[in-house]
Design brief:
single chain, 14 helices, 363 residues, 2 domains, 6-stranded parallel sheet, globular, 17 strands, alpha/beta, 20% strand, 39% helix
Length: 363
């Protein structure tokens, strides 16, 4: 049986309150202080994972008790040590590979410094996340009658590992490409890579709002701790694939923009009678793609450092796509703000989009 570990951490105070209800009653600063002193611990054991090949796997979810802003703001060495302790807990349980979830994948040069300090394999899960983001955006564009070959695609967070790979893979298939990031030098380098692979030029910018306003299709995958995609910036009829955790798309979009389709990137069906035995905000039998990559590698017996750092090759993306198919993992339909989208709901989005007047301000 394949055995894996996967690291998670609270994305908000509300997540902390799922285990400690008192977190809702005290100051966020106090909660953060308590989390900083807390040791990593096992929160659940995943069971029932059975591949189409007959192989089975089980795993342990290990909590790294730090909030997103702490992962970014605390001394990196302190954060790395806490992540390493969590990896060692997984190893003691029998795991032979560990996945780095959410912000634990951003620390230490995309997990490389973590991998250097432990004696089991490590992956961030970003390769399969890219696979599912691309599959999701193509499916969503099709149901919204968007012709990708004529569409403007904006990738927000384009210089990260997921964003840059999505840009390079989708560049040949879209009409226009806009890349948004915080560092112009890195954006210029990415444009060079896009041109080398696809002969496609791209517009680059640090202005999210301006580039989102021009887009028919948006992939957003930043490491921001707050909203970056706002309702007033989105064109009627646009598709947004939000791959980030915490979400990049404001909850206000769901409330005010019934004329756009927001989908969650990286949600997959796990084969077998899978149960993560913890409330990750997903129905039973579903998992985030980063979790699923770790499961796939365990089922395959690929106990090796797989996805680390920011450079993910097109060849590796193709390999992971085939491994997922082999073991029976698949995209979990189109989901928006934790709910499955029905054909009738999608038709309603299209109807509202058609009736909108395309002015400067959409709300």
């Amino acid at each position: 049986m394949g055995k894996f570990g996967f690291l998670v951490h609270p994305l908000s105070i509300e997540d902390v309150a799922k285990k400690y209800k008192i977190a809702r009653k005290v100051s966020p600063k106090l909660v953060a202080g308590v989390l900083k002193r807390r040791r990593p611990f096992v929160i659940s054991e995943a069971t029932g994972i059975r591949s189409s090949t007959g192989a089975e796997a089980k795993g342990w979810f290990i909590a790294v008790p730090l909030l997103p802003h702490q992962m970014l703001e605390l001394d990196e060495e302190f954060v790395i040590k806490k992540i390493v302790k969590a990896c060692k807990i997984a190893r003691k349980r029998g795991a032979r590979i560990v996945g780095l979830g959410a912000f634990t994948a951003l620390v230490g040069n995309g997990g490389r410094r973590i991998a250097d300090r432990i004696d089991i394999a490590v992956t961030t899960g970003n390769t399969y996340t890219i696979v599912t983001a691309i599959e999701g955006i193509k499916r969503a564009a099709a149901v919204m009658d968007i012709n990708l070959s004529e569409a403007c695609l904006t990738v927000v967070g384009a210089t990260g590992s997921i964003g840059s790979a999505c840009a390079q893979c989708l560049a040949p298939e879209v009409g226009e490409l806009r890349l948004v990031g915080r560092n112009m030098e890195r954006l210029e380098y990415l444009v060079g890579e896009v041109k080398r692979i696809s002969k496609k030029d791209a517009i680059i910018s640090t202005d999210i709002s301006a580039c989102v306003r021009e887009a028919d299709v948006i992939i957003s995958v930043t490491g921001a701790v707050g909203d970056v995609i706002l309702p007033e910036d989105i064109k009627p009829g646009a598709v947004i694939c939000d791959v980030a955790r915490p979400r990049d798309v404001s909850q206000r979009v769901a409330e005010a923009r019934g004329d756009v389709l927001v989908i969650e990137g990286g949600i997959v069906n796990v084969p077998g009678d899978a149960d993560l035995n913890f409330d990750f905000g997903l129905p039973k039998g579903m998992a985030l793609a980063c979790m699923a990559e770790t499961m796939i590698l365990a089922l395959e017996g690929r106990y090796e450092d797989y996805t680390l750092g920011k450079d993910i090759s097109v060849e590796k993306i193709g390999e992971m796509q085939e491994l997922a198919k082999k073991h029976g993992f698949e995209l979990a339909g189109l989901r928006s703000f934790d709910k499955a989208m029905t054909p009738a709901q999608i038709e309603e989005v299209k109807k509202k989009a058609r009736s909108r007047t395309r002015g400067q301000n959409w709300i």
